[in-house]
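Support reply, case 0932

Customer input (verbatim):
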Amino acid sequence: MSADTFPKETRILVVDDTPSIREDILTSLNRLGYTDVLQASNGSEGWDVLNKPGVQVDLVICDQNMPEMTGIQLLTKVRESPLHGNLPFLMLTTEGDSEIVFTAIKLKVHSYLLKPFNTGSLQAKLKDVWKRVTSTKKPAPAK
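Our regenerated output:
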């Protein structure tokens, strides 16, 4: 287990409406050693997965442009949720629109990866998210 990125047993939820993109993400994650990956085809399905009893997700990788519920809409619900509010969230999109990027940042997205991507760029973003997540954790109180 590397200290500079998510542990290999991390449960990751991939949310994207394009099956081939989900497969590309899954392949890249598998190459990086991540095998506990759940999938959803839009933000609404992703929200259902996050709230399924007994299922704990450690990281969300989510597209922006999807039917039913966009990535920004899912990120908004996640951040407003007492249960999921601090969940690490990586936005993956072809969207270069600065307003969407600004909105995602305002909603405390942990990082933003533009498509097309490769395994190396995904790995770099996972390290970036891990660094942000671990730098904001407060140390446990002394006993």
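We compared this against your earlier run and they match. Two observations from our side: The chain has a mean pLDDT of 91. The first strand starts at residue 12 and ends at 15. Please reopen the case if you see a mismatch on your end.
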